[in-house]
Amino acid sequence: MEPETICCYYSPVHSTGGVMPQQSKYSDQQFEALMTRIIEVLEQEQANRDLSLMVLGNVITRILQHQVREEDREMMAQQFAQVLVKSVSQ
């Protein structure tokens, strides 16, 4: 199994303060469709902010535990957290 790297679709690094798309092997259509489906499920379940964040956090944990080698998990979680903090700080 090859080491994995974290890939986030948007990063808040554009000089205008907006988000700038990163290179991705996924199409905009594929990304938007999946994100829309996830948001729709949260809305259909009337999940409030806390429940939504708990569920999404557990999904991320599950992905890291099942799709990332054990020795790479902490580094990838730290990278993900750094990108998340940057994305909400803009």
Low-pLDDT stretches: 1-21
Mean pLDDT: 81
Envelope shape:
globular
- What percent of the residues sit in helical stretches (DSSP H or I)? 55-70%
Please give the domain count: 1
Strand order of the largest sheet: 1-2
Helix-strand pattern: EEHHH
Strand content: under 5%
First-residue to last-residue Cα separation? 36 Å
Q: Main β-sheet, in a few words? A: 2 strands, antiparallel
What is the alpha-carbon Rg in Å? 14 Å
**Secondary structural class:** mainly alpha
> What is the oligomeric state here?
single chain
Q: How many helices?
A: 3
Number of DSSP strand runs: 2
What do you see in this structure?
With 90 residues, the chain is mostly helical. It has one domain. It has three helices and two strands; from the N terminus they run E-E-H-H-H. It has a two-stranded antiparallel ribbon.
Give a short synopsis of this structure.
This protein has 90 residues and is mainly alpha-helical. 62% of the residues lie in helices and 4% in strands. The chain has one domain (20-89).
Question: What attributes characterize this protein structure?
Answer:
globular; two-stranded antiparallel ribbon; about 90 residues; 3 helices; mainly alpha; single chain
